[in-house]
Amino acid sequence: MAISRRVLLGNSLLATAALASGRARAQATMPTLRIGVLTDLSGQYRDNSGPTSVLAARQAVEEFQPERKGFKVEILEGDHQQKPDIGAEIARRWFDENGVDAVVDMNNSAIALAVRNLAIQKDKAMLITGAASAELTGKYCSANSVHWAPDTYGDPHSTGAAILKKGGKTWFLIVADYIFGHSLENEVKKLVAGGGGKIIGSVAYPFPGTTDYSSFLVQAQSSGADVIAFCNTGGDMEHCVKQAHEFGLSDGGATVTTMFGFITEIKAIGLETAQGLYMTEPFYWDLNERTRAFTKRFLPKAGNNYPCSLHAGAYSATLHFMKVAAAIGPEKMHSGRAAIAAMKAMPTDDDCFGTASIRSDGRFLSDNHLFQVKKPSESKAPWDIFKLISTTPGAEAFHPLSDGACTMSPT
């Protein structure tokens, strides 16, 4: 008996529906890992991390396709508003109510420290891709955390050493008054002293909330220092560089420099004002073929906010977390200590940082690149901002493990 086209079509539709239903049931029963991106969605660090870091974590999930490895990954986002109590409360809710296994970003060292104690208590993982204090792998290191972000040892030792070589011997520091700023200040002081220079002045300003730096700049100018260095980042650094330019500090022969910053801030300042500044970053979108390939894939989502090292870190750390989950099984990733131990044991490899590794204290050992901001006449496109000066290998770029500051105490 001949079978009509209608019957064949109906059977085909039923089979397709059954297959789709089966896939849906399979996905519904898949183990699920949840990653919360705790970041600045509305404040001064919004561009150098913020929504673009959330997109970077989601980019990693989209590219890795964990469903093909038998598990799902969900990305949550939260705005800490630059307040440690709010950041800690979001993390607590995520751990207790939302089943979050790992927190990414935390682009404020005070917030990272507030979340640290919770992560240890709840046995969850911290993938620190935003906070920068070197003490996060020093006296505040933890078996529950890895530190992916540039830190307050690596950047000033790269940038500051170049300025010392050029003859900058006397220094005046303008410092953000919180753990990140003071950690940066302490590293600069040690570097300058070790390089035969001298700190002749240092002033701390309230963070967050300061926008007028004129009184601090006047102090710096009056000191007669060879180098005026900003121990801050984000919008604070942008304001400092712009106002120093307006004051004509460089006209008097002083070297004005930032000890920590990102391409997003240089873009906001503009090459006319920022030209000649030294800056250290472990990632630059135009560094090599792999960084350009990542940026090409990512830009359709990020719009006109080109990725900096914090965005690259959110992508890289999330990707490595999923690779480890595929290797040891997603169920084991619910324990932060087990997840972090496995992340340290497996070499990393991605388009943002190439092949790298994680040290026993949790320090991600990416190469550090010293750049100089181009003159407007040297730039061929809006985000053609840096020229490479030198590279410090990852094994040499960060504080020595032998300094003994990390005891890996669980408390």
Residue fraction in strands: 15-25%
- Give the overall pLDDT as a whole number: 92
Mind telling me the C-alpha Rg?
23 Å
Q: How helical, in percent, are the residues? A: 40-55%
Low-confidence stretches: 5-10, 12-20
CATH fold descriptor of the largest domain: Rossmann fold
Order of helices and strands: HEHEHEHEEHEHEHEHEHHEHHHEEEEH
Strand order of the largest sheet: 2-1-3-4-5
**CATH architecture verdict of the largest domain:** 3-Layer(aba) Sandwich
Provide the structure class.
alpha/beta
Let me know the CATH homologous superfamily of the largest domain. Response regulator
User: What is the count of structural domains?
Assistant: 2
Structural shape: globular
Q: Characterize the biggest β-sheet.
A: 5 strands, parallel
- Total of helices: 14
Under CATH at level 1, the class of the largest domain stands as Alpha Beta
How many E strands? 14
Distance between the termini: 77 Å
